[in-house]
Structure formats: structure tokens, C-alpha cells
Write a structure and sequence with these properties.
By secondary structure, the protein is of the alpha/beta class. Helices cover 28% and strands 37% of the residues.
Length: 199
């Protein structure tokens, strides 16, 4: 009887805990920094250029029975979540953040975007998807991020700097939860932001 109970519990753990359907995660920038910067950063809305995906789509996990969990960002707006993460990075390093309207991605656009800013920033999502597959108990995750960040430096002759970011990251979790996917995505975004903007 004990053996049968153990087998039942094991099957429940491996199969019953994974249910298909829509799941939601929070995307936020949580890393800490010393506040060593000063000045005002203007941040314009980010654009989601993924024509084949809903604006809140983050990725999916394929389960053992070939059903699927689909993950979305809370608020259903990935572009807005990434914009906020970039703003949080700048604030944590000491800058003051001000929302601004979309601006033309040229040196003239930088010049015409208003005054009082040390930099202006915007970005676009070219690709963003986490593909995960459950293999028995473990889950393999592959996250593809392809972003373009645009930084206008008004103090440097209205210079426009384009920063393309494209990478693929992999992780295996022996016991998967939406919280672990959330941690994986957020840590990856933090790494991208830090490497792209600390130049």
C-alpha cells in the first residue's frame, strides 16, 4: 500500500502539477546599483515589432502530453514592461527619469526632442520568446532576445547611438514553476540592460 501511495504521489508531482493554459509573469528590474550618475533621462515608448505575436506574449512550455502552457507578461504589454525596466535601471544608477513622446530616430530627431535631457532613450522588440520543454521532471528553457535600443545624446552634438542586442540563453530546471521562468527572464533582461547601457 505504501508503495502504491508513493507511485501515485510521484505521478501527481510529475504530471498533475503541470496544467496547460495561459500563465502570467511579472517582468521588472530588481538589481541594485550605486547612485553615481546625475541628470535627466527622457524615455519614449518602446515598440513591439513582433508581427506574429500578441503584445503580451513571453513564451510557452510544451508538456509531456504535448499540451502547452503559454506565458504572458502581467498587463499584456511587453514593450511597456521593458521600457519600465530600462527606466528603473537608470533611476537606480542615479538619473531622474521623465517620459517623453516618440522621437524620430535621427540626429535631427534628437535635436527636436526637447531640452533639459542628458540623454533620450527608446527601443524596439524584434524578437522575444522563451521556449521551454518538459522532459519527464526537468524542463529545458531557451530564451531568445533581440532588441534594438536607441540613445540620443544631446550633449554630444545630438548624436544618435544604436545598440543592437541579440542573444540566446539556456537553462534547465529540475522542478519547473512559473516563478522560476520569471526569475530566468528577469535575470536575462537585467544582464542585457546592464551590458547594453553601461557603455
Amino acid at each position: 500500500m505504501k508503495k502504491q501511495w508513493w507511485i501515485f504521489c510521484s505521478l501527481f508531482f510529475l504530471l498533475g502539477c503541470a496544467t496547460a493554459g495561459q500563465k502570467f509573469i511579472n517582468i521588472s528590474y530588481k538589481a541594485d546599483h550605486e547612485k553615481v550618475q546625475t541628470g535627466v533621462i527622457g524615455i519614449a515608448p518602446f515598440k513591439d515589432k513582433r508581427t506574429d505575436r500578441d503584445g503580451g506574449y513571453v513564451g510557452y512550455r510544451l508538456l509531456n502530453d504535448n499540451s502547452q502552457e503559454t506565458f504572458f507578461v502581467q498587463g499584456m504589454n511587453l514593450a511597456d514592461s521593458l521600457k519600465k525596466s530600462v527606466g528603473d535601471y537608470y533611476e537606480k544608477t542615479g538619473y531622474t527619469i521623465t517620459p517623453i513622446a516618440p522621437w524620430e530616430l535621427t540626429s535631427n530627431g534628437v535635436m527636436n526632442a526637447g531640452s533639459g535631457f542628458k540623454q533620450i532613450v527608446t527601443g524596439q522588440i524584434n524578437k522575444f520568446e522563451c521556449r521551454a520543454k518538459k522532459k519527464g521532471a526537468p524542463t529545458d528553457m531557451v530564451l531568445e532576445i533581440d532588441l534594438t535600443l536607441y540613445i540620443g545624446k544631446k550633449s554630444d552634438g545630438n548624436e544618435l547611438k544604436t545598440i543592437p542586442v541579440s542573444l540566446t540563453l539556456e537553462r534547465t530546471e529540475m522542478t519547473f514553476t512559473p516563478e522560476k521562468l520569471e526569475i530566468f527572464v528577469n535575470q536575462s533582461i537585467e544582464d542585457v540592460i546592464q551590458k547594453a547601457l553601461a557603455r
